Amino acid sequence: MGDNFVINIGRQLGSGGREIGEKLAASLEISFYDKELINLASEESGLCRDFFEKADEKPSQPLMNGLFGMRFPFPNDSIMACNSCLSNDALFKVQSDVIRKLAAEKSCLFVGRCADYILRDHPRHVNVFVSASLDDRIERLCQTMHVGKAEAEELIERTDKKRSEYYNYYSYKTWGAAATYHLCIDSSALGVDDTVLFVAEFVKKKLQL
Q1: Does any domain span residue 1?
Q2: Considering the domain boundaries, does residue 195 fall inside one?
Q3: pLDDT tens by residue, 193-206
Q4: What is the pLDDT of residue 72?
Q5: Which residues have CB under 8 Å from 193's CB, separation 6+?
Q6: pLDDT, position 205
Q7: 95, 99, 178, 202: which could form a disulfide with 41 (CB 3.0–4.6 Å)?
Q8: Residue 143: which of 12, 22, 21, 16 has the closest Cα?
Q9: What CA–CA distance (Å, rounded) separates 149 from 153?
Q10: Which InterPro entries would you find in this protein's record (predicted)?
Q11: Is the confidence at residue 81, as pLDDT, over 80?
């Protein structure tokens, strides 16, 4: 791994977490991964991208009838059970291997997907959680997704619940809780660009870059 480092970003929907992550990665000149992980996991496993799309940030459940949704200790498990090859757990294992492989090869920034838990043993990592006021989140979704306020608020509630269940299930920690991360920041306080600058300074000091 050498001098490689990783930044893992958790985020509330509409907080600007993805944009902050993308700009932060660009400013630090490191690789950025979000939805790109779905393509990479599909290529690595030879499984259809649709399986990973359906399982993306969702806790364990069978994707096809007749397959077991059993859970097993993935961080130390190198072999996928054949009868669980299409369960969310097994797809999480594939995606976890991709994340570890990328982090071993170069410095990266990962958005979501329990990357902070998956890379908890990486010698140089920073875990950040981005939140924002509900009003700002609703406004951002209305602008970016072209939906009404009621629909935006419903989407926020549904997505945050899904992300929380996914994270809590796989990490055994609490999504969004301060004790889970090195830094929790409200992007409403500074705005996206100044939040990027603030987090970049924090990362540089923590990792002595």
Answers
A1: no
A2: yes
A3: 999 999 999 999 99
A4: 37
A5: 23
A6: 97
A7: 95
A8: 16
A9: 6
A10: P-loop_NTPase
A11: no
Whether the per-residue pLDDT at 80 is higher than 60: the answer is no
Domain containing 84 equals 6-204
The three-state DSSP-derived secondary structure of the chain is CCCCCEEEEEECCCCCHHHHHHHHHHHHCCEEECCHHHHHHHHHHCCCHHHHHHHCCCCCCECCCCCCCCCCCHHHCCCCCHHHCCEHHHHHHHHHHHHHHHHHHCCEEEECCCHHHHCCCCCCEEEEEEECCHHHHHHHHHHHHCCCHHHHHHHHHHHHHHHHHHHHHHHCCCCCCHHHCCEEEEHHHHCHHHHHHHHHHHHHHHHCC
The CATH number covering residue 155 comes to 3.40.50.300
What's the sign of the alpha-carbon dihedral 84, 87, 88, 90? positive
**Could you give the number of structural domains in the chain?**
1
Residue 209 forms part of a structural domain:
no
pLDDT digits (tens, 9 = 90+) for 18-60: 999 999 999 999 999 987 777 776 676 666 666 656 655 566 6
Q: Which of 49, 51, 85, 50 is nearest to 67 (CA)?
A: 85
The predicted structure's pLDDT at residue 63: 40
Instruction: Count CA atoms within 13 Å of residue 36 on its CB side.
Output: 12
